[in-house]
Amino acid sequence: MSKRSATNDLEDSGRRAAKINEDSVPTSIREASNGAEDAEMGEFEDPYGDDFESDEEIIEVDSDGVGEEMDEEDKSGDVEMQKDTQKAQEPEIYLPHKSKPLGPDEVLEADPSVYNMLHNINLPWPCLTVDILPDNLGSERRSFPASLYVATATQASRSKDNELISMKLSSLAKTLVKDEDEDDEDDDDDDDDYDVDPIMDSEQIPLKHTTNRIRVSPHSLETGEYLTATMSESGEVLIYDLAPQMKAFDTPGYMIPKQAKRPIHTIRAHGNVEGYGLDWSPLINTGALLTGDCSGRVHLTSRTTSSWTTDKTPFTASQASIEDIQWSTGESTVFATGGTDGYVRIWDTRSKKHKPAISVAASTTDVNVISWCEKINYLLASGHDDGSWSIWDLRKLFNGKEQPSPVANYDFHKSPITSISFNPLDESILAVSSEDNTVTLWDLAVEADDEEIKNQRNDFKELHDIPPQLLFVHWQRDVKDVRWHKQIPGCLVSTGGDGLNVWKTISV
Prior knowledge:
Blueprint (H helix, E strand, L loop, with lengths): L28 E4 L10 E3 L26 H18 L16 E4 L5 E8 L4 E7 L12 E9 L8 E10 L11 H11 L4 E8 L4 E6 L3 H4 L3 E6 L4 E5 L1 H8 L14 E3 L9 E4 L7 E5 L5 E6 L4 E3 L11 E6 L6 E6 L3 E6 L9 E4 L5 E6 L6 E6 L4 E5 H4 L10 E3 L6 E7 L2 E9 L3 E6 L7 H9 L10 E6 L5 E4 L6 E6 L2 E7 L3
Antiparallel strand pairs: 1-3, 2-4, 4-31, 5-6, 6-7, 7-8, 9-10, 10-11, 11-12, 13-14, 14-15, 15-16, 17-18, 18-19, 19-20, 21-22, 22-23, 23-24, 25-26, 26-27, 27-28, 29-30, 30-31
GO molecular function: unfolded protein binding
GO biological process, one term: ribosome biogenesis
Pfam family, one: WD40
């Protein structure tokens, strides 16, 4: 898993492209950047600034400052220039594998009509990872303004400046897009409901090293402990309980105890070998944590009544780096790993030999990330360093074939995949991020032979090499990690070089 260079030169603007609906294609608008200075951590950015265009007539002025009429030749040339200018300003389809890279003074602007919500959070340093903190605000939340809690950790230029940051983001308004024909007076009352400034409360815990991955226990609401693990580049795995921080967000005047800013346990089984693999069991509520490092070792740490215990014997198959780990969503003793040797492996913690039950060559390049479907527990997704990603039916991995093939494979991205995640509320929807600075949303339920899709592909030549399952393209610079919010349908949080994006599209 590649890192980005730590930098504090964070841009306030981003570029994004999106589909208006599942039958359309991503659009974008290129415009000059104003070079705004970086904002401090926690400052929310309004991605939809007010643009004003002058309707006044342009008059040519001679050297004496006196206006004069243009001759026919000048008028003809001016008309052609205006046509070229209008053509340059027309929206164009943005495709990460086809579109030209933007110039140093260009950005890709978000189309507000395709977002239900879009907020940017500027942080003091880039973050390689992010996760959602479960809350008591209820499930299936669809109303606005929205509130959510997240945890992230920084990649600072100096080790001593790193932090674990927990945040409460509230008053997140719905994206408002007015139709030009709408009566402003009729909409005043509706606009007042969303015309609020977003609010961020944050709590920081100092760290000594960059965090490669952070994961929050899915049992936090059930147990009351917000167990949060960080995989450090130093090789240490720190486990915190962020329950006091969560209480401080919702209890005015509450002071967080000093001990709450210290880890409740530190895993040192990996020595000084850093790693990226990290996952909490979704089925063992007492606390079961898997950690994998760059030397190919996987350790299981379990919670007992009085302490934490890490198995001394690691799970190993090769010396290739373990890039990602995922517990099974259906079997409490089964987990999967993806590594730099291109293999996806299925393991059972009951194995005395600590060897994989099955190994599948998923790619000729690194397997950077994997995701186990929560709704259908025999589906596993893998994202690869060559930009491709695949869906595996685990039932076919155990049928005796030498080399099973994926049930679906896509190579739309041409840069390494940095994150892949099944939607926890819809088994057919996935989010995939890539080093091409985009997050794509996919609907595997879309049939390629759908009549409407066929007609669109015939009408638009740009659609010929776009998979019909592609729903949406969201642009974010140096995007590294993407997480779905289980309690807010369709809401995602992604981290990149320009901080965090909290967004929800009209497509999901």
